């Protein structure tokens, strides 16, 4: 991809989109297109098609999505399936209509079956039932993958999908009502430390295993795939190793300096028992994660303190 290429990052204000913009700028791409939600409503097919017809970017990163943790996914189920379906359909079909041949669709590892064989290979998609708490979001993301796959087959497009594991890092959402597990733990531990609490509560049993990837590593992988000319298919993007929620909480305690104890609320849902991605396809192409979890959590805590610290 030439440095003069026009690259549209949909969702540039979110955690993933902002990381993509940072990575592209660092690589010397000067023509990065962005639009805020007020400037472009991606839920509107007409507005999205008009924008793509006018701007005709050379490449699109679809990082725009409605996202959240277990509570948000399970509470706002209709919002999650509708909004994500509309955003991806408008952008993928709009790209086709505008003659834009290359894009990357950002999905999620929650697309895989709840009780999937570990580590999870790309081929395991649609091999079993989904985790019920985020099924609407997962189905929307699976639809995006299939949109890319079938626009390639029918029209010769070069649309590929990237499936990241659990992400964290700068620009994350720390709202306890709808955030993901790692940012929620960072905020809980920080606030417990400020109050001088003797304990902080973690949802679930602490036994599920999760893989975490710093969002700057994800952005690096996506730009790498773009520059390598990847034209189709689906690729897992992860660190290749996982930890228990208990281990994660203990690391967060050390990073934040909270010296109390952890209490697990087993009445709250655990979600999927384990979710570790097989990243061998990505490694075979020549990319692997660089930011260790402890270092990444420290970077995330620094970002939290800069924006929310007290």
Any overview of this molecule?
The chain has helices at 15-26, 45-55, 70-75, 77-97, 135-155, 181-195, 215-227, 245-256, 280-285, 293-308; strands spanning 6-10, 31-33, 59-62, 102-106, 158-164, 166-168, 199-203, 209-210, 212-214, 234-237, 243-244, 261-265, 274-275. It is an alpha/beta fold and 310 residues long. The chain has a domain at 6-171 and 212-239 and 276-291: 3-Layer(aba) Sandwich (Rossmann fold). Helix 5 links the parallel strand 4 (102-106) and strand 5. The protein is globular, with a radius of gyration of 19 Å. The N and C termini lie far apart (43 Å). The model has no long low-confidence stretch (mean pLDDT 95).
Précis, in short:
This protein is α/β, with parallel strands linked by helices.
Secondary-structure blueprint of this entry?
Elements: E1 6-10, H1 15-26, E2 31-33, H2 45-55, E3 59-62, H3 70-75, H4 77-97, E4 102-106, H5 135-155, E5 158-164, E6 166-168, H6 181-195, E7 199-203, E8 209-210, E9 212-214, H7 215-227, E10 234-237, E11 243-244, H8 245-256, E12 261-265, E13 274-275, H9 280-285, H10 293-308
Parallel strand pairs: 1-2, 1-3, 3-4, 4-5, 5-10, 6-9, 7-12, 8-13
Antiparallel strand pairs: 8-11
Helix pairs in contact: 1-7, 2-4, 4-5, 6-8, 6-10, 8-10
């Amino acid at each position: 991809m030439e440095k003069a290429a026009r690259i549209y990052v949909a969702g540039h204000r979110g955690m993933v989109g902002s990381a993509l913009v940072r990575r592209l700028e660092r690589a010397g791409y000067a023509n990065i297109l962005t639009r805020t939600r007020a400037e472009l409503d991606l839920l509107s097919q007409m507005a999205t098609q008009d924008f793509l017809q006018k701007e005709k970017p050379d490449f699109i990163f679809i990082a725009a999505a409605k996202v959240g943790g277990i509570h948000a996914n399970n509470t706002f189920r209709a919002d999650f399936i509708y909004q994500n379906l509309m955003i991806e359909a408008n952008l993928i079909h709009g790209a086709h209509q505008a003659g834009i041949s290359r894009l990357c669709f950002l999905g999620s590892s929650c697309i895989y079956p709840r009780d999937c064989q570990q580590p999870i290979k790309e081929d395991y998609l649609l091999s079993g039932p989904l985790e019920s708490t985020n099924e609407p979001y997962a189905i929307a993301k699976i639809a995006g993958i299939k949109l890319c796959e079938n626009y390639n087959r029918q029209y010769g497009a070069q649309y590929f999908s990237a499936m990241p594991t659990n992400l964290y890092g700068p620009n994350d959402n720390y709202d306890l009502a709808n955030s993901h597990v790692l940012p929620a733990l960072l905020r809980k531990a920080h606030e417990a430390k400020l109050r001088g609490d003797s304990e902080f509560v973690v949802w679930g049993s602490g036994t599920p295993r999760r893989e975490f990837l710093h969002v700057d590593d994800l952005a690096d992988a996506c730009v790498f795939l773009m520059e390598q000319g990847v034209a189709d298919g689906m690729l897992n993007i992860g660190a290749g190793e996982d930890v228990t929620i208990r281990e994660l909480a203990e690391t967060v305690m050390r990073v934040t300096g909270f010296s109390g104890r952890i209490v697990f609320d087993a009445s709250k849902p655990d979600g999927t028992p384990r979710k570790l991605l097989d990243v061998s396809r990505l490694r075979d192409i020549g990319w692997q994660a660089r930011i260790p979890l402890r270092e990444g959590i420290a970077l995330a805590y620094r970002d939290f303190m800069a924006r929310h610290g007290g």
